[in-house]
Amino acid sequence: MNLTLPRRQLLASGAAATLGAMPAASAGAASIPVAAVPLTVQRRSLEVNGKAASVFAITRPDGSPGLVLAPGQRFAVALRNQCGAPTIVHWHGQTPPVRQDGVTETRLETLIQAGGVQGYEYAPRTGTHWMHSHHGLQEQRLMAAPLVVRTAADTRADAQEVIVLLHDFTFRDPREILARLSGAKASGGAGGMSGLTMPMPGTPTPAAAPDLNDIDYDAYLANDRTLADPQVVPVERGGWVRLRLINGASATAFWIGLGALRGEVVAVDGNPVRPVTVGMIPLAEAQRVDVLLRLPAGGGAFPVLAQREGDRQRTGFILATPGAVIGRLAEVAAAPVGAVDLSLERRLVALDPLPRRRPDRVIRVRLTGSMMPYAWGIDGKSWPDHTPLVVTRGQRVVLELVNQTAMAHPMHLHGHHFQVVELAGGALHGAMRDTVLVPARQTVRVAFDADNPGRWLFHCHNLYHMASGMMTEVAYTGFHAGY
Predict the structure, then answer these.
(1) What value, to the nearest 5°, has the Cα angle with vertex 252 and ends 249 and 257?
(2) How far apart are CA 104 and CA 118, in angstroms?
(3) Cα–Cα distances in Å, from 225 out to 67, 167, 289, 291?
(4) Between the N and C ends of the chain, which has fewer C-beta atoms within 10 Å?
(5) What region, left, alpha or beta, does residue 398 occupy, with left being phi > 0 and alpha being psi -120 to 50 degrees?
(6) Which of 124, 112, 171 is nearest to 151 (CA)?
(7) What is the pTM of this model?
(8) According to the 3-state scheme, what is the secondary structure of 245-260?
(9) Whether 301 contacts 318, CB under 8 Å
(10) What is the pLDDT along the chain (483 residues), one digit of tens a residue?
């Protein structure tokens, strides 16, 4: 799968001129930019382990997924909806004006109807990001794609870029999965729960053991492929490679194993960090990690594997130098791995941190709910019954995220990036992120500057937790006027 595109093709004027005359779909959104990059949401057929499935895609005119922007290039997009159903796409990791965030839950935007086109234009945030549907459960059906904004330093670096989007895949209708989860909530039992990994009622859970993996999936994908037919990326002997890894899974956290290689984590969620040498990398849902590594001068084939936490299932891809012998890789590891944790998070230091200052506001946010019954919320409330977290422009805000549940939650704030400043009571000057993992029964503190007025969603990025209510919003004074 080719995930890069020359800038001259991105700015093809013919398509942009055609799209420029079409109206925008959302009130308050941008008109179609004159030099818009065409992106199309559409359906496609994907073969997974020998069986065809109908899924979504977000593609450029040449059929390649997502978007790669050159240094200094403006985010100017015309998003066509040709998938046959209403949709909207969120630009995850970007910090646009609030009416271009790609969500409808705040009622500041409306869905793009089938056949419609929507314009977006703003100055993008650099780094490794992604795009995905924020409507219903479409994200589970692979309505997701990379969104990379390169810097001038990236173009000067003597490193080959490899962009990989991870996903969890099911042949089942995601609505059926959610209905079965919710059915357990309604009945208090697990009858008819085939394919779900929830514990049976009454099963004792050790106090220190978190619940892992709501759902058993049919496959795990790296750039749409399983290990039965993995992507093989040609690389140079002794060459440098920059991996841009995106966990686009709906409900799966992974451990990324570099095998015989060692690399340096140089960015997370698109934000540069002081380099940290790694061989295994924890990656929660929606998080991204950039890893710089050097291939041995002698060459060879080097699998990079993503293994589901608490399990043996895995996916991945292979870096291969010319002439390398590529062996078959098993889709299950020899042994399960533990829960994704904060071991890497504790080692990260932001290269571009927030300016040091005292917080103006500390907001305690409790993550609440349980697997049985399957009910998730924030401060005991489930969306849309929520209490907004009200802030004022110019404030330094600290969110104290207290996970009172037996599951970890990757918490994502729209429209902002925050700094991780405390893990389990230990202060640190950590990474800048937009998504942070809050492990079961632990507390994480993050800080951000309230510099992007609006109403911004704040939610768990496990799709089924969010769909079951674990969402609220950060509302600026002046925007906090209800619906």
Answers:
(1) 95
(2) 13
(3) 20, 10, 20, 21
(4) C
(5) beta
(6) 124
(7) 0.90
(8) EEECCCCCCEEEECCC
(9) yes
(10) 434 333 223 223 223 323 333 333 444 467 888 889 999 999 999 999 999 999 999 999 999 999 999 999 999 999 999 999 999 999 999 999 999 999 999 999 999 999 999 999 999 999 999 999 999 999 999 999 999 999 999 999 999 999 999 999 999 999 999 999 887 544 333 333 334 444 333 333 445 578 899 899 999 999 999 999 999 999 999 999 999 999 999 999 999 999 999 999 999 999 999 999 999 999 999 999 999 999 999 999 999 999 999 999 999 999 999 999 999 999 999 999 999 999 999 999 999 999 999 999 999 999 999 988 899 999 999 999 999 999 999 999 999 999 999 999 999 999 999 999 999 899 999 999 999 999 999 999 999 999 999 999 999 999 999 999 999 999 999 875 444
Cα angle for residues 362, 92, 354 (degrees, 5° grid): 40
Domains and CATH numbers, the chain: 7-149 (2.60.40.420), 217-340 (2.60.40.420), 361-476 (2.60.40.420)
* Residue 468: exposure state from Cβ atoms within 10 A (0-12, 13-18, ≥19): buried
**Of 319, 369, 343, whose CA–CA distance to 159 is shortest?**
319
Q: Using H for helix, E for strand and C for coil, what is the string for 380-415?
A: CECCCCCCCEEECCCCEEEEEEEECCCCCEEEEECC
- Distance (Å, whole) CA 417 – CA 111: 25
Q: What distances in angstroms separate CA 31 from CA 13, 34, 121, 248, 324, one per listed residue?
A: 17, 9, 8, 29, 50
Which residue's entry shows tokens 């942070």? 436
